[in-house]
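In the previous lecture we treated proteins in isolation. Real proteins rarely work alone, and many bind small molecules. This record shows how such a complex is specified: first the sequence, then the SMILES for pyridoxal-5'-phosphate.
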Amino acid sequence: MKKYNFNAGPSMLPREVIENTAKQILDFNGSGLSLAEISHRAKDFQPVVDEAEALVKELLDIPDGYKTIFLGGGASLEFCMVPYNFLVKKAAYLNTGTWAKKAMKEAKLFGEVVEVASSADANYTFIPKGWTVPADADYLHTTSNNTIYGTEMRKDYDVPVRQICDMSSDIFSRPVDVSKYDCIYAGAQKNLSMAGVTIVIVKEDALGKADAVRKIPTMLDYRTHVEKGSMFNTPPVVPIYTALENLRWIKAQGGVKEMDRRALQRADMLYSEIDRNKLFRGTVAEEDRSVMNICFVMNDEYAELEKPFFEFATSKGMVGIKGHRSVGGFRASCYNAQTVEGVQALIDCMKEFESNH
Ligand SMILES: *Cc1c(COP(=O)(O)O)cnc(C)c1O
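The predicted 3D structure, ligand included, written as tokens:
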């Protein structure tokens, strides 16, 4: 049976990205060696990093003065590296969910943290509006897409301070105005590559301000990786290669504008069915609905059908639709590689299940 992958992360990648990675794992560039057994300093690998960096710049239309680096440690390590490198005295954080909260917890180790707004009291079902950022904050930190709760900013804020954003689960899904940010980071396993690499886009002249207040361990200093072109130590070679294949795929499909168009199309299809189907309802405020992680639950009068629907959908090939435990119900993750066909298959399940009940 055909499987439809709605996993939240690690998650679906385009088939050709997986196939091309598999080929290179067997024989890298016809060298007779596996991608997994060559040195990261091999002359054939440097072009992989160079091309990946160039494609990131091209696809996100990054202005000069920024550097893209490939690190290990996941987005979770960035929660600590960001304040280590950028927090001098005070930082502002928008609390939109679990990941934002974890980022704030780390920042508090380094200085004053101002929570500009929070939707915690409403179980993060919306993105707070109408807040202000202290003009003397070193930066405002946001989470562009809240993978667990299914809310998404879908725009770059206009605020009087520099911004830093965790774009782990929607990077390359829409155009971004990078010039507003000192730093953008993303764990790769949602929308870019397999687990193991984190992409960090950093404005070079924003680095070094924290020298006035602290020393930074070498590995946690962004300058180390900027200066060494992600080769200070051994980077995650295979995940970087997979990222390159995916970046090539995104470009060939028409870039982030086309990714945006497709994401909106898929999300429109699925949310329309959630709103129409008497069994289900969405969990978040309509204007903040994520086009990447689409969360829904059974309507109250059909609550007992949650497990039966899960089993029914699983029997039809749906994978990874169980909601996160902090929301319950269902979550269909529709990253760049998700297809209209996959979303239609899930919609067909919902319709068929409705007609059976
Ligand atoms: C998954 C996720 C993280 C954590 O990523 P790791 O790579 O597992 O550390 C952080 N932020 C967001 C928005 C995520 O979706």
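Summary for your notes: Residues 255-276 form the longest helix (22 residues). The pocket of pyridoxal-5'-phosphate is lined by residues 9, 74-76, 99, 143, 147, 166, 168-169, 187, 190 (CB under 6 Å).
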